[in-house]
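Figure 6 in text form: structure in, sequence out.
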């Protein structure tokens, strides 16, 4: 069984959950509609307590039915409600028709779509135009209504999903409502977290409408949201008799000429994440600056790849790629690291070298951003973003091991894994140089400490690393997102690692 708050499904699966609730649990469909409307109304009034004038736009299906019940609740609360229907109410059927009749009985009066939204007559707008079943691009009045809502300047609150957003992929179907709040029902739909969705959903809340936990064998989720609870399970208290040798030795390989900062960031991140020992293998010219900046790091200048032999033998986990480059020195370092047979975190230029000469193995974690993922899959970053789940599967099927696809809504999965992890944290301030190097160091440190004992293997450790990285970034952004730099995460990591 799975809790709704951690499970993510396709729209078709959520419709099946609806059917189970109605036909097998005996909850009438109209009761579910009323529960949804009450949940939405409570969230809206909590966030906009002074909004007395509501504009509610309804389409023609059950999403519209939710809208009509919401309008009735607003009328019952003494609010001024303006109702606009893009589908004639006489054509409504089933629960949506019942919802309209009850709304009309409560004093609701509906107007046809006037061609524009007058922001002067409302304090907020409710988007109940289209639900999660949208599969074609918007046109006609629906396209005009979505664009008008976005241009109105009103805060728009979406019922279940912003209209125009594909419930499966997060793709914008010609146009989509830009909501400040989305209240979704029964279970999370994957389209709320993929593609363009993070820019359009605003704050996203879930109400399961009182439906019980999901039988995951019957309706298996497509994603699981990594939570604080998972993090705490994977971060046990340390033994009082522990010593630095018990917490792993991370070897960071990279830092070509002019790129010493990347390995410094990765190495310090590994230390800040609890690794017992961290060594940086880099160009000789970087050694002095790294040791002076962070004396707790061991640092070795590497002229030729054979100089790595002793370091590789001592290492528990390798962090390969930060500032590595793609010249002859970089390629020799890369090949030597792969040949060592140690657990690996592969990032940055090491991923580009892998894309140029694909190979497959287990025991590594690949951490591409969309551009690197595009090179790994012979496509573009835009194509990656339009199908992040598909890209994740392609990478693990092609290269083996575990993959972490960066970006808002980071995805983590392994070969043959039916339910990847979704990381919901992070913020735009983290879109800056060096953030990926910090993540690499965090992940290598966690693998060095816990990799052998984690029940979920590298996948769970990689998800924990992404969660910690995002949580530290969110803590560091409290004073503002602009100007956030990668090293700002260091002081926040300790709090996140010691819940």
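Output sequence:
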């Amino acid at each position: 069984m799975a809790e709704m708050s951690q499970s993510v499904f396709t729209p078709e699966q959520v419709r099946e959950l609806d059917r189970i609730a109605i036909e097998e649990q005996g909850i009438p469909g109209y009761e579910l509609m009323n529960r949804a409307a009450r949940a939405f109304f409570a969230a809206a009034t909590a966030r906009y307590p002074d909004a007395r004038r509501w504009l509610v736009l309804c389409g023609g299906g059950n999403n519209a039915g939710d809208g009509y019940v919401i309008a009735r609740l607003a009328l019952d609360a003494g609010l001024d409600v303006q109702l606009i229907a893009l589908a004639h109410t006489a054509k409504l059927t089933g629960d949506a028709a019942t919802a309209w009749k009850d709304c009309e009985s409560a004093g609701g009066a509906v107007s046809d779509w006037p061609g524009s939204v007058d922001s002067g007559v409302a304090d907020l707008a409710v988007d109940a135009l289209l639900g999660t079943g949208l599969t074609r691009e918007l046109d006609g009045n629906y396209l005009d209504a979505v664009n008008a809502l976005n241009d109105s300047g009103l805060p728009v609150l979406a019922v279940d999903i912003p209209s125009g957003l594909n419930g499966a992929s997060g793709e914008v179907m010609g146009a989509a409502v830009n909501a400040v709040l989305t209240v979704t029902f029964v279970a999370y739909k994957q389209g709320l977290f993929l593609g363009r969705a993070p820019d359009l959903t605003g704050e996203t809340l879930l109400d399961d409408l009182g439906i019980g936990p999901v039988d995951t064998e019957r309706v298996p989720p497509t994603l699981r949201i990594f939570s604080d609870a998972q993090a705490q399970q994977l971060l046990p208290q340390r033994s009082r008799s522990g010593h630095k040798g018990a917490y792993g030795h991370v070897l960071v390989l990279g830092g070509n000429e002019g790129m010493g900062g990347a390995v410094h960031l990765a190495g310090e991140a590994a230390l800040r994440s609890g690794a017992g020992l961290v060594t940086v293998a880099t160009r000789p010219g970087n050694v002095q600056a790294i040791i002076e900046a962070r004396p707790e790091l061991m640092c070795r200048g590497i002229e030729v790849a054979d100089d790595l032999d002793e370091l590789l033998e001592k290492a528990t986990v390798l962090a390969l790629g930060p500032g590595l480059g793609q010249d002859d020195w970089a390629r020799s370092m890369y090949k030597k690291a792969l040949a060592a047979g140690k657990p690996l975190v592969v990032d940055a230029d090491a991923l580009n070298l892998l894309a140029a000469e694909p190979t497959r193995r287990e025991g590594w974690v690949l951490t591409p951003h969309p551009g690197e993922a595009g090179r790994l899959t012979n496509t573009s970053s835009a194509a990656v973003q339009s199908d992040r789940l598909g890209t994740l599967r392609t990478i693990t099927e092609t290269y083996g091991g575990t993959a972490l696809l960066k970006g808002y809504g980071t995805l983590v999965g392994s070969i043959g894994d039916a339910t990847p992890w979704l990381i919901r944290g992070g913020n735009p301030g983290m879109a800056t140089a060096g953030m990926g190097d910090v993540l690499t160091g965090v992940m290598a440190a966690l693998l060095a400490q816990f990799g052998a004992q984690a029940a979920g293997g590298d996948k769970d450790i990689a998800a924990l690393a992404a969660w910690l990285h995002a949580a530290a970034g969110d803590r560091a952004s409290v004073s503002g997102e602009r100007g956030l730099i990668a090293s700002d995460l260091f002081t926040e990591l300790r709090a996140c690692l010691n819940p």
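Caption detail: The mean pLDDT is 95.
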